[in-house]
Amino acid sequence: RFDEDAGGDKPKAKAVTIEAALKKIASHIGQKAKCFKSCRLLLQLLQSKQMNTQNSSSFFEVLRASMEDPKLSAEPELRRIYRKVFLVAESNIKLFEETEQEWVKAYSLLAIVRNELFTDDSFLFNKRMNFVKAQLEGVGTGQGDASRRAWEREALVDCLETAKSFYKLRPWSRTTTDLVTKLAFDQSHHFDDAQK
Q1: Nearest-angstrom CA–CA distance, 45 and 51
Q2: CA triplet 55, 59, 65: central angle to 5 degrees?
Q3: Cα–Cα distances in Å, from 136 out to 12, 89, 157?
Q4: Which of 13, 65, 78, 186 is 20–30 Å from 42 (CA)?
């Protein structure tokens, strides 16, 4: 609980539970105008170790709400905060249920990997593209929830589109982008028509 004891004769501020705070954050995090502040509040809760096995599903619902519009996390003013939120969520991944863990990993493809592809650092770019490559190599072997697997394939396509958007601007990115794009083409039978 977030309790503020004003002390003395002053009235006590209303206590806000973690659950109530998370519900409010979830209702705002998908709105572009309120997203940054909502992400910042979520990050504060995560960094202050407020998540545990009893309330991790509520935290997960906020993470899910933040990715209802996957393009939102790529907005220039939101990339860093999304990256930070999902890095902290991943560092606490064992607190989530198994299915939620898989979704957090899928969401991280956009919140972390795709957002790090916007870098001018060739080492980081290549590192992230190698991660995309590894994910593409395993795209046909996935088990579990079909909607999560489809979402993850879409996230991989978004990562490739981000990499290709820098093709002319960053000549050093071309070789890696070409190799990973070729692999994606070779794996295209695992993607639906819209993803191809």
Answers
A1: 7
A2: 145
A3: 55, 23, 10
A4: 13
Residue 69, burial from CB neighbour count under 10 angstroms (0-12, 13-18, 19+): middle
Please name the residues in contact with 147: beta carbons below 8 A apart, sequence gap of 6 or more.
Answer: none
Summarised one tens digit per residue, pLDDT across range 51-86 is 999 999 999 999 999 999 999 999 999 999 999 999
Query: Rounded to an integer, what distance in angstroms lies between the CA atom of residue 6 and that of residue 66?
Result: 34
Element (H, E) at 111: none
Tens-digit pLDDT profile for residues 107-148 = 999 999 999 999 999 999 999 999 999 999 887 766 678 888
> Is-contact 82 73, C-beta < 8 A?
yes
153-168 core/surface letters (b: 16 or more CB in 10 A; e: else): bbbbbbbbebbbebee
Helix (H, G, I), strand (E, B) or coil at 2: strand
Reading the block at residue 133, the tokens are 């490559």
Instruction: Give the angle 18-37-109 at the CA atoms, nearest 5°.
Output: 90
Query: Which pLDDT value is given to residue 7?
Result: 47
CA geometry: angle 184, 173, 140, nearest 5 deg: 15
Residue 158: its pLDDT value, please? 95
Which H or E element spans position 171?
none
Predicted TM-score (pTM) of this structure: 0.85
CA 59 – CA 57 distance, rounded (Å): 5
CA separation for the pair 8, 16 (Å, rounded): 20
